[in-house]
Amino acid sequence: MVHDARVLPGPLATLDLFLSWLREGKTDNARRLLVDPTFLDMAVKLGWGQLKSPRSFLVDMQEEGQSWPEWLGARIVTKTSDQRWVFHFTLQDGHWLIKDWLAEQQAPTASRTASPDSTGGRKP
Question: What is the CATH number that goes with domain 11-103?
């Protein structure tokens, strides 16, 4: 007999909510989605709360072969940079949290492209 059948938002939904709260200025809410709250300051300094265009933040890679990927790759375009990031997630107390993010090293040529994956290039 099932006693609890809640739908659990996954890592992509967590990242989407984090970015939405940053855009809305709800930093206390956004901080609760982070394992390490100091990452909030980094997100603010990187200007992620100012990203209004859906093209500014594109999730285009994820861990393959997992129902719930523990990492997602994204391209983030701000006024001052165009950078790829890898976001790591962990499940804590029934909630997906952002563990950290790391800047991906840029390829030496401009011809570098990511292969499509199951996220379908979703824009949070």
Answer: 3.10.450
